[in-house]
Every structure is written in C-alpha cells, then in structure tokens.
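G., before I forget:
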Amino acid sequence: MSSAAAAILPPRGGPSGAASDAFWRHPKFLLLLLLTPPLLWLGIIYLGSLFALLAQSFFAIDHYTGMIDYTPTLRTYRELLTTPANLDIIVRTVLMAACVTLFSALIAFPIAYYAARYARGKWKALFYLGVMLPLWSSYLVKIYAWKLILAKEGIFNWVLAKLHLYWLLDAYLSLPVIGGNSLSVSYTGTFLVFVYVWLPYMILPLQASLERLPNNLLEASADLGAAPRQTFWSVIFPLALPGAIAGSIFTFSLTLGDYIIPQIVGSSRLFIGQAVYMQQGTAGNIPLAAAFTVVPMVIMGFYLWMAKRMGAFDAL
Amino acid sequence: MKRSFKTFTAILAVSAFVSQTTISAAAAAEMLQKLGDGEGEVSIVAWPGYIERGETDENYDWVTDFEEETGCKVNVKTANTSDEMVALMNQGGFDLVTASGDASLRLVAGKRVQPINVDLIPSWKTIDDRLKDAPWHTVDGVHYGVPYQWGPNVLMYNTDVFKEAPKSWNVVFEKQDLPDGKTNEGRVQAYDGPIYIADAANYLMAHKPELGIKDPYELNEEQYKAALDLLRGQRKLVSRYWHDAFIQIDDFKNEGVVASSSWPFQVNLLASEDAPIASTIPEEGATGWADSTMMHADAEHPNCAYMWMEHSLKPKVQGDLAAWFGSVPVVPAACKGNELLGDEGCKTNGFEDFDKIKFWRTPVADCDSQDECIPYYRWVSDYIGVIGGR
Amino acid sequence: MTSAVRFKNVCRHFGAIRAVDGLNLEIAPGEFFALLGPSGSGKTTSLRLIAGFERPTAGHIEIFGERADAIPPYRRNVNTVFQDYALFPHLSVLENVAYGLKMKGVAKKQRLARAEELLELVQLPGYGDRSPAKLSGGQRQRVALARALVNEPKVLLLDEPLGALDLKLREQMQEELKSLQKRLAITFVFVTHDQGEALSMADRIAVFNEGKIMQVGTPEEIYRAPRSRFVADFVGSSNVLPPDLVERLTGTRAWASLRPEAVRLVSRGGHSATLVSSSFLGAQRRAVFDFDGFQITALLAADAKLPEPGKTARLAWGESDLHLMEDEPVDGPEGAA
C-alpha cells in the first residue's frame, strides 16, 4: 500500500459532490426533497379534488330550475337514500361486488397457491405471463370480446348447442334475477366479465401472501397433528387473509366503481359508476353524482374497518 | 348521435364545476360586425367523425382545402357526449363547438357562446329554410349557431323478420308477436338515454290523444307519468338498452335483436355489410337530432371561426359529411351531385321526413306549451328507475 | 426390545442427489441421540424422514416397530422442534403451544390449561398472551419446545435446536434439554453440525457424511476411537497419521489418529520434533510441531515450557493413544505416499 494515500479523500468536485456530502450529513433533508413533490400531488390534486367532490354532495339541485343551489344541505343525501331506484342501484352494485369478490377469491386461491408453492422456473414465468396477459390488452377489447362470447348467437351458445347442452343454459336463463334473454344481457354475464377482468387483482396479492408463508409452518402444523384441512383453516387461511383482503379491496372497489362492463354486458340496469356518470353528465346533477360516489367510499371505509376488526391486518 | 362513451371522472366534473363558477361571470361578447384577417388557427370541439381530414378514409376530407385557402389551421377536440361538450366549452380555450339540441340551449343559457352575425356568412341564405330559425340555436330572434347537420332517430328493423316496414313504433313499445310468429320479447331495443322518454311521449301523442301532449319535450306530470308507464311495459321487452352505436350493431348481428330506434349511421353501416337491415320512420313520426356550430363567447380566433362556419356550409362539405355520418345536410343543394352521398343519399338519411321529426331539446321546467313541465333532471332519475325495473 | 426409530436401507434421492443413501440405524427408546455431520451430509433429511416430511425412495422406516414410511406426518406421534422454530405468527404463545391439542379436538379449557403447564415446564410461565414476534431467540426456542412436547410424542425431533442462540444461552439450553430429556424419558433425536454439542449432550451419536453414516457410537467411542479419517477430522480435530508413519512407529501399516491432548512434552525419550508455531488459548496452549515431515498438533498446559519456534522438542504419547482406524483403507490416495 502506498504511504502517499491520504486517510481522508478530498471532496468530489462540483455542486453534485457538495450536494452528496450535504445529503449524507442531513439524510432527512434528502427524504424531504424526495417526498415533497408526491405529497404535494397527493395533497392538492388528489385530496383536494376529493374534498371538492365531497363538498358538492352537500349542495342540492334546485328542482324548479335544475340549477345547483350552493347552500349546504343534506337534501341530496335524502334523495339518494329515499328514492327506491337509487337504493336499487346501490344494493345491486354492492351485491354484485360482493359476489364478484367472493367468487374471484375462490378461483384465485388454487391458482395463487399453485403459483406460490409449486411453480418454479419457467412455469412461474408462464404463470405471471398468464395472469398478466389479460391486463396488457385493452380493457374495452376484452369486454367486447366477452360480449361476443356470451351473445345469443355467440361462441358459448354455439359450443353448448354442439354439445347438446343448450337446454341446460335455457333452464339457467329462465331463472329469475340471474337469468335473462341471453348470457350477455343477464346479471350472470356481467358477473362473469367482472370476475374475468378483476381476477388478476385478486391472484397477485394472494400469491404474494402465500409466497411469504414459510413452508415450515405447514410442516409444523402437520407435525402437530393437523390434517391438511385443519392446516388450511388454521394456518394457510389466516396467513393468506391479508392477501385476500388486499385482493378483495381491489376487486370490490373496482366493481363498485366500474361503469363500462355493465354498459356493454348486462341488462342496462344501472350500477353506481354508471349512475355517477349519468347524473353528473347527462343530468347535470353534480350533487347527486357526488353523493353517489360517496357511497363506494363509505362502503370501502366500512369494509376496511371490518377487515381490521377481524384481524386481517394483524399479520402484516 | 351521442356516439359511444368515454371516461369522465368525478375530478373532471369538479373542475368543470370550478371553472363554471369562476368564468360564468364573464358576459357574452358583442356580436362581431366585420370580418378581419384570419388568426392562423381555429379550435373546434366536435363529435367524432364530424371534422375529417382524410385520415380515416382519404375520400372524406373537408379540412385540408380549408386550411390551404384561409391559412387557418384546424385543431379538433372530439367529445363523445353533449355533456362533455358543455364541460369543454365551460373550461374555455375553444372557438367552436358542434352542439346538439340538448346542449345548445344550455350553452346559450350559460353564456358560453356568442351571437352569430349571419351577414358575415354569405352561405347562410343557402341553408334549408326549415332550419334557419330553429329553436335550438335561435333565442329571441338571435342566432347563436349555424346549422351543421341533422338526422332522425329511425326505426331500424330486420328485413328477414319484417317483410314490410313496420308502420308503427308499437313493435318496440307493446308486447306482440312479430311477423315471423315469435314474440318481440328480448328482440327489441330502446335508447339508453333519458331523452328517450320523448320517444315514448311521441308515441302517446298519436295513440293517447286524450293526454293532450303537444310537444314530447314539454310534459306535465300526468303526461310524463303515462310515458313512464309505457316505458315500464317496454322494459319487459328489452334485454339491453343501447347507448353505443357499435354495441347496437353487434346486438343486431349477434344478439337476435330485430327492431329498435336507431340512427341512420348504424343502418348504413349494417346495410353496407349486406346485413338484412332497413329503417323507416313510422306513422307516429320520430325524434331526431340537429347540430349547430356555435362560437365560444371568448373565442380567440373569431375570424377563422367565421371562415370555418362559412366553409362548413359548402355543398361539397355538407354532402361529404352526410355521406360519412349518415346524416342530412342543412344545405339542400348538397343533396344533388355529391359523389359520396349519391342522389338518393339525402332521402335515405331522412331529408323528406323533417316534419315528422321532433328534434332533441333539453326539457326545462319553464316551458312554452304549458305552465310547468317536468325538467330534465327528473327525466334522468326516472329513466334510471324504469331501466332498473321500478 | 423394539427400537424407537429404525432405518432399514433407507434411501432418499432428489434426482441425482443422494441426500440419504442406504441408511441403517437403530435408535433405542429413551435415548438422546445425535445426528452429527457437516451441512449436506444427510442428517436433516434423515430427521425429516422420521417426521414424515420426506418419504424414502427406497427402504423403510419403523417407529416403535411400526412401518411409518407411508404414514403422513399428522398421523405420527412424533414432534419436531424446527431449526427456526416455525412458530405460528398469527397465534399467541399460548395458542401456539396448545395447537397440537386443538388439532386433536381437546376442549379449549383443558388445552389452554395444559399449554400453560408446558410453558411452566420450559420456564416461560405467564408468557402465554404474547405474540411470538415479541420474544427473544431463547424464548422462542422454549416455546417451540413446549409446543412440540404438548402432544407427548414418542419421539421428539430437534433440528439444530440451538443453532441460532449465542454461546452462553446455548450452554445453558444444552443443560436444560438434557435434564428435560431425563425427566420426560422421551426419545430425543437431534440434528447438529456442532461436534461439541453432540458430544456433550447425546447418549449416542451417528456421524454422517455424504448421505451415509460413517460411525455410530457413544461420544467417548466416537471421540477416542474414530474409525475413519473423516470422523477423526470432524470430531475433535485429531492428528491423523498416515500409514507410513504409523508403520514406523508401531509396526502396523494403518491410518491412525492421535488426539492433541494426548501429546506430552518430555525432556528425554519420546520423539524429536521441531516447533512450528504456538498459540495461547487461555486454559491451554496449542503447539504445532513438525514431526518427520508431518504436522502434529499438541494441546499442552498453558504454562508448558516450549522452545523457540524452529528449535527441537521431544514429544511423547501413550501407546493406546495412537488409535488405528480400522475403517480407513490403507491404500487410500494419500496412504500410498
């Protein structure tokens, strides 16, 4: 080693060198610098518009002139919650979101479980590709494709007809509520497309949570005398729950807010998203539209609160 | 022609609201008295397909030569609904808008558009007399817009099922067996917009004269209730309401739908694919839409805007556009000798049916024909209810 | 008497890797048995074969005389203390301990009471409400132990149970585990790579290398009489003397081991050797000598009179201290030299 080497190196030249030294001495300053723009964005653009929206819901439309009356009132909420058609929309949307979420979780679980615990190497890559691929193609294209699949003269019916199983579909479609003239104009059709479109959002967090689940916990459970079913309910399920909750937050809130799928595949009965679109747009009733958008926010808040109470986040 | 739909977030709504409250104080500008030199550009809010520069199909181009002649570069911002147009105009920064009847009066009332000096538009006199003083752009004798195109909401039907054109709208309103012997349940459609209540009112005008409906956009409580009842009956026949022209086209092809209110646009498109589709205007008449080019109150390029309005009335432009869009020109001269439209084009698209058509207007409480009418916001919430099964 | 655990020609191959290869082993009931070996030697796989987490690719395993190789883990009355404890993070300490009883369907009140008893046994009374995440390494170790013992297993398996603890805690736990085992009279099978731990705790040891057992015996046997160079090397850092040298010393041509502490410094007689280096270890001093071209390490008293490095000293050892390794082939790669 050369004895000429100094123990302390000279400062690096230029302003970037000086800045590096300053940041090293005051790490909080760097953090502040990095966080300010996103916080400003979040605070002003996002929260600001959210509060502006909330504020809107406390105004009401003047029923004589159709103009917005800017005095704070709860009249719009009363209209929202006492008009049967509006309640229908809320109940319909929440039920749909709940069904979509439950069913997504049900079919996402085995897929996620396989991917997290068994798939290795190229199979894992294939899994990610398979799950993500639908996310890469256009949302609208997918929905239109589903419309064609489910149409009365569509692929699905054609296949059933070839299999001589058309009577089965007919019987199903004659059921009240979930049936209809064809799958593409029934709640079932809307449901299927919702599940298809949001499924990746359930699989990925579920898979992440299952991946974090150490194998030796499963071995420990079996070792202590738990049959596979017991292991599932006592270990896998509670530890996968945060992932399922995270996924369900996606599927649930995305279904609550979507207004395109029920527009293209469905019976034209409105969902909350469509109602918002229609009220703020066509009707110019921004207060009611705002009140409608508050509904999913309240539901999601309640949902998160329940999930927290149930201990879904304890293992985080 | 409220074609398709588009993301329209709550944030946009809020920003529209904010700008509305801040800007609306600005008074409408005075009418322009004298045309000067072009400002080099003009920006237009338009329906998709309304302003074509040959990019979709090189035969359809009515922008390039305008730019060459006037030196005004045309910027187009497309909007998919009347409400989006209103929102864009409220934000400002545009010179012109191709507003439909359900948006035009709102723009006038909101003072977002300025009066048009028809003397500065030499072709004004070539406009169809039936449209010159149309109420959707003329308020108290003042013109706030130049007619652009119009069209009827026709009854589109499947010619395999209907060997003869249906005579009445009852095929979509009343439960019945169609000529092929099968019920119309699940095989007809209706428009998924509150304005469709006017179609029901129009039907009742003919079939229930005792209600005394004079104008389908001006309904009192009783007339309105009757229209809703009719629509409730229709709900049982309709599997899906149509909103997007292309979804409707698909439903006629794949969903077994055989009759519905529609636009010539869909009819022409299906017919061009050799689908067994035709359209008619039944004996009750029909609703329809009529668009006007209107000028922003704070237009930055008024001279180019006037030049565009003049240009938009040229027979060639009118004819090409009508052929492209399936609409009717507002300049009758455009109907003859247009290569793209053909000699029968105007007739096909509804030129002779003008008198049968009740053009879309925004229903307001303060109406002309009666003391008080049901305003549009109620149309919206009640139509939602009807479709929802209430 | 039936063995607590018996391996009969057991193989566990993972593709081309022979993790366990032709294992024969009997562990007696009540024994504290150590599986000792370097990492990858097959000791952990053997433990997992007993627990049922792995199935043999050939041969079979008996637990208390019953064939077990097709029995799933949850039907074996065998419990495991995992290397990193594998405590359930979503359950409290008490619930963790009571888990085995819950799976058996024991009523809540009884199982929690029993779990509390077990916590007392491992000296963690009153810790039941805590979350495992809030415990220290040693405490987790005890919880894992209590959890594994709650089902009163016939065999308790411990996978490197003390590996994650610091030295002091480790010595304390060694004592505790031993006394616990004596008290409960359960067969303990534990895996370790630390020969000191194995020697001090186990009744018997199996030394593993490359999927095979090199030697089974009491700690003394293993330490004093390694049967192969590998065992001699791995257990206690013996001097390994090659056949040529051993032949000169004893007349018998064989590999031999000579424990460092058996080497003495004498003033006359013995063998002449040159001191290479020495280091002070506190209670003892370790000296490395050159003896006829071979290095011999001696563990001497701390105050031993050593010459300067490079100078000659005289070394001696008892005749019986030079142990001939019967399992080591004389004509091995270095033996011929």
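Chain C touches chain A through 24 residues (CB under 8 Å). Chain C has nine helices and 18 strands.

More on Monday.
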